[in-house]
Specification:
The protein is an alpha+beta fold. It contains eight helices and seven strands, in the order αααααβαββαββαββ. Helix 1 runs antiparallel to helix 2 (39-53) and helix 3 (58-74) packs antiparallel against helix 4 (87-153). The longest helix has 67 residues, at 87-153.
Length: 358
């Protein structure tokens, strides 16, 4: 209800502003040139613009009627009085109504088509996620079930070391499932429009420290080379979600960058943006997979540990922040994932984040 009231207020304000501007322009021109023949055209243009930028037919029709009254009262003899029976006024009214109905019809159709395309894209994403989830959840659940069954059925015969190994596998798969559920909750809340991104100025150094602490708990043996600006820097963001993005990207490198010896986390500032980069010197990304990284459809030989869901979550979170995310292969070997956020609280221009590898 509140959104509907806001939309009505916006459309009413736009209609009033456009008609007021047209009236002022017509009065201004009247001081210098004869505009009796030009004024109806100006108001027809105004009606066209109103029908184009407002929703439905009501505002365009109202603008048509108001325009006819304005032209009749201020720009048609006898001036400053209404003569609604004049044929030219009736013709002007019919023309404006025809323009309004035609433009509003085209605008409504265009918006409906855009809504259909948007809904189709959402349904495609949901279907892709569902396929990936059904594939990805099967493997850890099978492992957990098999390990638990083996321990229960052979409790007295299994050596303690073997039991510990099986229980370790259960714990590892359960931890992965927890992270999967966290990712899925984030992406579904954002995609469903139920999560409002609350940006707060976050100190960059504190964010990176928090990410590294959590990452090292999961991968204590993996070193990360960190490069961030020396100056004190704050970035508007939802810190919890951006932490999740960075951890997903770092984990992705650990799990999939075969042959990796070094892992970098870099942050730079350019063009009013904070640009985050996660790089590795591993095997890189297969060329035929580059276009599918962020759509949740990735399938891999290593089952549920592949990157599709995590990267889909990253893309959704960054998009909700008004930023952008890309992936490419480094010239030196390995993969480079980059995303950017505006340093001011607002959408970031996408073009500024697209640049070559370091």
């Amino acid at each position: 209800m509140r959104k509907r009231a806001q939309k009505m207020l916006r459309c009413s304000a736009l209609t009033g502003l456009i008609l007021a501007a047209t009236l002022l322009i017509s009065l201004f021109l009247q001081e210098f040139i004869p505009v009796d023949a030009l004024v109806p055209s100006l108001f027809i243009l105004a009606v066209f613009v109103v029908a184009l930028v407002t929703d439905g037919y009501a505002y365009g029709i109202a603008a048509s009627l108001i325009s006819v009254l304005c032209v009749n009262y201020a720009f048609t003899a006898p001036y400053l009085s209404f003569s609604l029976t004049l044929p030219e006024n009736l013709v002007s009214a019919l023309i404006m109504l025809a323009v309004t109905i035609s433009t509003s019809t085209l605008t409504v159709q265009r918006r409906r088509q855009a809504e259909i395309r948007s809904e189709t894209a959402r349904e495609t994403m949901r279907a892709n996620l569902l396929r990936a989830i059904s594939h990805d959840l099967r493997t850890p659940l099978t492992t957990i079930y098999g390990s638990c069954s083996a321990i229960i059925e052979n409790y007295d015969r299994l050596p303690k070391a073997q039991q510990i190994k099986l229980l370790g596998e259960v714990r590892e798969e359960a931890e992965w499932l927890i992270r999967m559920v966290e990712n899925l909750l984030s992406v579904t809340r954002i995609d469903g429009g139920r999560l409002q991104i609350a940006k707060t100025p976050t100190v960059l150094e504190e964010l990176i420290d928090s990410v590294l602490i959590k990452f090292r708990k999961r991968y204590p043996g993996q070193a990360v080379t960190v490069e961030i600006p020396d100056e004190f820097l704050t970035v508007p963001m939802d810190a919890v979600l951006i932490e999740q993005v960075l951890i997903n990207l770092l984990e992705n490198a650990v799990q999939h960058a075969v042959g990796m010896r070094q892992l970098w986390l870099r942050v730079t500032c350019r063009g009013g943006q904070a640009i985050f980069e996660v790089q590795d010197d591993g095997c890189g990304i297969p060329r035929d997979k580059l276009g599918e990284l962020f759509n949740g459809r990735m399938d891999g030989a290593d089952g549920h540990k592949f990157m599709g869901i995590g990267l889909s979550v990253c893309a959704t979170i960054i998009k909700a922040h008004g930023g952008g995310i890309t992936a490419e292969n480094r010239r030196e070997g390995g993969a480079l994932f980059r995303f950017w956020l505006a340093l001011e609280d607002g959408p970031a221009p996408a073009a500024a984040g697209k640049e070559g590898s370091h």
